[in-house]
Amino acid sequence: MSLAIAARFARRELRGGLHGFRIFLACLALGVAAIAGVGSVRSAIQAGLSDQGAILLGGDAQAEFTYRFASDQERAWLESVSTGLSEITDFRSMAVVGDADTAERGLTQVKSVDDAYPLLGKMVLDPAMPLAQALDGGEHPGAVMAPVLADRLGLAPGDSFRLGTAEFTLSATIVTEPDDAGDGFGLGPRTMVRTRDLDGSGLLAPGSLFESEYRMTVAPGTDLAALRDEAEERYQGTGIRWRDATDGAPGVARFVDQLANFLVLVGLSGLAVGGIGVSAAVRAYLARKTTVIATLRTLGASRRVIFLTYFLQIGALSLLGIAIGLLLGAAVPLLFAPLIAGALPIPVIFTLYPGPLAEAAIYGVLTALLFTLWPLARTEEVRAATLFRDALDSARALPATRFVVATAVLLTVLVGVAVVFSGNARITLWTTAGILGALVILSIAATAIRALARRAVPVARGKPVLRWALGAIGGRRDTAGSVVLSLGLGLSVLAAIGQIDGNLRAAIDRDLPEIAPSYFFVDIQPDQIDGYLERLENDPAVSRIDTAPMLRGVITRINGVNAQEVAGDHWVVRGDRGITYTAEPDSRTIVTDGEWWPRDYNGPPQISFAREEAEEIGLTLGDEITFNVLGRDITATVTSFRDVDFSTAGIGFVMTLNPTALQGAPHTWISTVYAEPESEARILRDLATRYPNITAIRVRDAIDRVTELLEGIGAAIRWGAAATLLTGFLVLIGAASAGTSAQTYEAAVLKTLGASRARILQSFALRSALLGASAGVVALGAGILGGWAVSRFIMETGFAVQWSSALGIILGGILATLIAGLGFAWRPLAARPATVLRARE
């Protein structure tokens, strides 16, 4: 019965329109739209990857080997299960133009192909020609190249260049490579040649760093999962890695998922800011309804009926806001689909995806419940006789216990939902803790700012403008709280991102060059290592040379169990890893646990594993690790753990074995060279001329490639943070709008006492600036704390406050509050004092 009465009252209240709820709707809609939009774009990318998986992969399925080609037996089986087969190799090399001192060199990711390539998709070249014609060449074999590399080397079609000792003629530049997204991240631009034209080049010698890929088309209706199982069972222990069209670009898919999940967490920050606005809007609305509530109580309405009346009303408006957000989240990606698709190097399919919309709706409902429950519950705590004036302000700070418990349950459910949807409990829980911590800090700060303003009022004697501003900040709870919480949380997110981004860039630009080598040299053949060292050790410009033998292997089992069942999707067991051997650790190796093998050890294979990675996958001393090298399984016992610092860009191996375990296997050497910058070009020229098969990776160029990737990620995250800040600005507008009545009365009193409009306006502006500066300073503190935690514990880099970003945060806070505050100041200034004061009698 009470529900029916409450529903009737709520329906009648809603007839009054949306006055006072525009900001409420905007805050909720914007947060929901951000989450729905990110989810819709992610689903469009996932659909594109799934639909075009075969083209991205270059076939229906692919078998991949490290350091070797498929054996005759393996190739025969691959041909038997396929309708088409193409053999491809992928490796890094140096493209060289010219000779001796005038030679130009550029790092390139080489793809060598056969006549069957591409099985699927189409290669588009400039000038337009078939790939087969381009690779035929003329006097020398032909090649095609990415435009950026051709421009860097000054090459035009018809010009010649070298890969190793082989000469090639550039026939065309690459416009579209159908399977480039499936190839993953490369350190250099693409060059494509035929595999047979590399004979004698020294680039595919035994032990060289290359991967062979066998792409296949299969008969329609073939069960790809069953084919995968058969391949893995038949060739278990040979190091074969299998992919099929259901996961054509796993690296891209994984990256998109991780970035999208992080952006959803940023979106949750926006919803939290919007929730503050929702809570403030509900509180302000109920404050205006005290007369109505008092009348209903006088007429015998129970507390339950009153609560349900406004719960249903707010609930209906919340559903409207969520619906608007879902509409925007679905429509905006569709509207901008051509722009998004043009900016992405992978296929996307834009349509309506129910999944992300449902996810955003769940977030919206939980957020609306979480932030409206307390303002609604507080109406139960006030007696009818006191509802006619400042009823809600006179209620106790906490509502009834059942509402506190319900709030805790809602918060737990919201966090649980975020963990499930994101798939990354650690980051989600840390993000949630950060948001809650920021809210606690900002709430305490808001109370402290009000108290400080009250104490400072006497100090401002003789300065009426300042005194009025301080009095308003200290006496008006809602304004200070809403400004500091809403704007502060938005600025905190932006400040944290600014600090993280700035420190990461500083680590790359300032710290890394001091500890990173000049060059990474790979594919040094065993018979070249002595001459290589002789050249460098006699060069006074070289301060340090590190070398190590290297093979690559795939971890297949841990203690006899499939490695991925033990370690999950950890990067150590995903793909092949570098492996080395040494008789004894050098002076920079720190063994943290266990014992190194004796220098003359000649027993069963032993392995020293990187400590941090071992902890992450649960390894202990005595565990057995089986890895495949060149088709051969080697099982070694973990006898020690050691610290490995991968952040220096130097040589670092997860796995190091005793020499007799690997010494007989074909392998090459890698080396890092630390030299004076002005000597780097000369060192590269001398070594490349003497050993054309060696590939040199300039560390600065590799860092620049990573920086480009980080820039794209940072831009996406900053846009997400900007949406959070926009929501905070909407809350400011709502707070300013809600305070118009109080400002009108204040202005009327001041005018009556002789204050001019100019001085009153100055007071309003000073009030807004002080609140904005306070919010900015507090947000900066929270952002610095968050940035320090992420930099220190997640990225493991140093941390220093980025003052340029910090100043921008404070100025942004002042500017936002000034715009929002002064935008609603003109009506109070224009009101006539007599009319206002008579209305308050």
UniProtKB/TrEMBL annotation:
The keyword Transmembrane applies. The keyword Transmembrane applies. It is a multi-pass membrane protein. Signal peptide: none annotated. Keywords: Cell membrane, Membrane, Transmembrane, Transmembrane helix. Residues 266-378, 722-828 form the ABC3 transporter permease C-terminal domain. Its main location: membrane. One of its GO terms (cellular component) is plasma membrane. The chain crosses the membrane at residues 262-286, 307-340, 360-377, 398-421, 427-453, 769-791, 803-826. It is found in: Cell membrane. This is Putative ABC transport system permease protein. It comes from Salipiger aestuarii. The lineage of its organism: Bacteria, Pseudomonadati, Pseudomonadota, Alphaproteobacteria, Rhodobacterales.
